[in-house]
Q: What sequence folds into this?
DNA sequence: TCCCTTGCCGAAACCGGTTTCGGTCCGCAG
DNA sequence: CTGCGGACCGAAACCGGTTTCGGCAAGGGA
């Protein structure tokens, strides 16, 4: 009769209001109350109202895991974090989490998060959560080009939403910020300041956003009638160090640019360093423009002109989208994009005439 | 018969291995299998082994929410984050979360997190999670002096563990880093370098750690036979700006110190700024020592001498402790402390003779 | 030999919901 | 007046576990 450990006290009988209590109070049966609460049409409007009022009054909240045993759903969103990535994820995380959790809780849902280091553990983590029914769907941050998580969930027929887009949109709902539009506007902004030789430092190519932002940059150049010099383009810069290296390469070009567009703020800050090492004053000799809106950008010298992304809003939107997805709304209505917001600070300025004579 | 939305497909019948399957395969009943899995002593050793083997072989994993309906427990840890706080929480968060989630998942538990902005929403969030039975216990990061969360959970008789200690230890399990020991060692380190006038910038007084670290500093001064000048002590510095202000006050003292101990790294970096504004070279004219081990410290000029806290390990430990707490282990065995690790870098150096003549 | 433990397991109730299947009442056409 | 189809709700099964209670057989003491 004894378990190996101490016998645990019952916790569920803690004077909880159950569906039976509500039913008794109204002289109805559990089944009627259940269907009324769930809005079934075979319960009259009048009864539905009566039931919902009484439930409210008595403080009845259906136990999600009691429902889950039959429905298989527990009203919780899954979020699997990967920490093997570069540090860029850190400032991002807090805001994002706040948004997701806020979005979930306003709908009465909760968030279960898991983290993995290893790349292999990733899929295993998803499987474990699904096996235990701990999440009804997943939010996938940082969409990759050919995302293994998408393959897994698509095959398992589990709802998910991406932060970022996906070429093969089958089964994909998403929320994304229009990085391509931002890159295009960045070029326009610089061209408007008189810059004609403009470099581009892209982010990690494994990410879905990289190709988009590259396209945006190219489109901007085309619209402004500017030529793209492949020597002024770098890839895969996601950290400050990456950015410094990439900018160094670009600035050491025989015919260097007077401005650089960066797909990632950290890379932009790295470009600051490369500029300093070459005696270039950012904002005067060299204009730099970033993307992300990390707090460090505002404190940099000079403050970084950038396109800010509201990660909290993104998290909120993703939570809402996923909930609607789990509820069965059609995919087409669950794809949203918003523009980044341009933040003009002091790292971009008119092309300096001295350097142009070079 | 129709729900308001689209009828959702059943998900639970997805060829899941249930306890009945295992029972049938062994010619036993559900109840026997259940008790065998849970290690009840009224099931023979032999049968327990048979059952567990078969469960393993068939891939049987009990559904936590099916268990929960009777036991009230779902094998999940709760974590409620507050974002109204200062930004200092950010670098902390990712590592901590990784640790908690790793600790939970190695035990087969999961983590449900929620976030609140408002101070009032905090308690409400706890209540909602408890009401829905979404967590069996809570991890409380950043213990406050008279923590309202502790009051709530103590009264509700819900298990919890603190990151930080608590004066009234009733019902409290915790994990903490010995900040007082670090402060004491900081003074010793500086005294060993010849410093005799040492300032102290403390962190937020609402936090439980503040008093401890202040004590540690005082004890260190006493042990080294140094006098404490109240004019060289400041409180409530948790951000860089706070630290700059506090350090300014201390450095503008008629008889300024040659070294400052900071209870928080951010404050230490603020002290850098104040020092620079007064033409003092950190590490030569003024020694500064911090606590936390934030990444920014390593990149500061000069790199910051500090006491590093392993937040990932802390998260891991807290998860493990909470699980044991929920399982019913006695409180006394669930209080752990570890020392911070001293990281000697370049912001501390021997007392410069020039300044001492002043 | 008989009775009483003790060890071990089965039968059935139970947890808090959802869902299937009827059954009653009513209005209305035949 | 009868038959019939909705509208609306109750009865009972069910979901996947846990727990209570009791039964049976083996073993030990009197």
A:
């Amino acid at each position: 009769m004894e378990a190996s450990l101490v016998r645990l006290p019952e916790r569920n009988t803690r004077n909880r209001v159950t569906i039976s209590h509500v039913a008794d109070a109204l002289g109805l049966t559990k089944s009627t109350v259940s269907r009324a609460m769930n809005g079934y049409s075979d319960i009259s409007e009048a009864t539905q109202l009566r039931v919902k009022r009484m439930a409210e009054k008595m403080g009845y909240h259906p136990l999600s895991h009691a429902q889950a045993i039959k429905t298989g759903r527990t009203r919780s969103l899954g979020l699997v974090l990967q920490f093997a990535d570069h540090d860029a994820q850190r400032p991002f995380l807090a805001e994002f989490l706040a948004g997701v959790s806020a979005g979930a809780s306003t709908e009465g849902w909760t968030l279960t998060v898991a983290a993995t280091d290893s790349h292999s553990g990733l899929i295993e983590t998803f499987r474990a959560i699904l096996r235990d029914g701990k999440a009804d769907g997943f939010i996938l941050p940082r969409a990759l080009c050919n995302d293994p998580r998408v393959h897994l969930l698509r095959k398992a027929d589990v709802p998910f939403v991406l932060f970022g887009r996906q070429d093969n949109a089958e089964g994909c709902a998403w929320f994304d910020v229009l990085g391509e539009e931002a890159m295009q506007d960045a070029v326009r902004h610089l061209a408007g300041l008189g810059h004609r030789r403009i470099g581009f430092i892209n982010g990690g190519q494994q990410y879905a956003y990289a190709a988009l932002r590259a396209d945006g940059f190219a489109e901007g150049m085309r619209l402004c009638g500017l030529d793209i010099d492949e020597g002024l383009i770098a890839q895969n810069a996601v950290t400050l160090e990456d950015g410094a290296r990439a900018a160094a390469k670009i600035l050491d070009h025989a015919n260097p640019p007077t401005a650089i567009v960066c797909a990632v703020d950290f890379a932009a800050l790295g470009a600051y360093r490369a500029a300093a090492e070459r005696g270039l004053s950012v904002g005067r000799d060299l204009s730099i423009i970033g993307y992300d809106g990390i707090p460090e950008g505002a404190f940099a010298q000079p403050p970084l002109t950038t396109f800010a992304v509201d990660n909290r809003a993104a998290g909120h939107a993703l939570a809402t989208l996923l909930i609607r997805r789990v509820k069965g709304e059609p995919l087409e209505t669950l794809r949203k994009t918003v523009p980044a917001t341009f933040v003009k600070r002091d790292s971009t300025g008119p092309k300096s005439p001295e350097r142009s004579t070079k």
Remarks:
- Chain A touches chain B through 60 residues (CB under 8 Å).
- Chain A has three domains: 19-63, 76-177+311-338, 179-309+342-357.
- The CA atoms of residues 25 and 244 of chain A lie 70 Å apart.
- Residues 12-13, 16, 18-20, 30-31, 34-35, 38, 62-63, 65-71 of chain A lie near DNA strand C (CB under 10 Å from a C1').
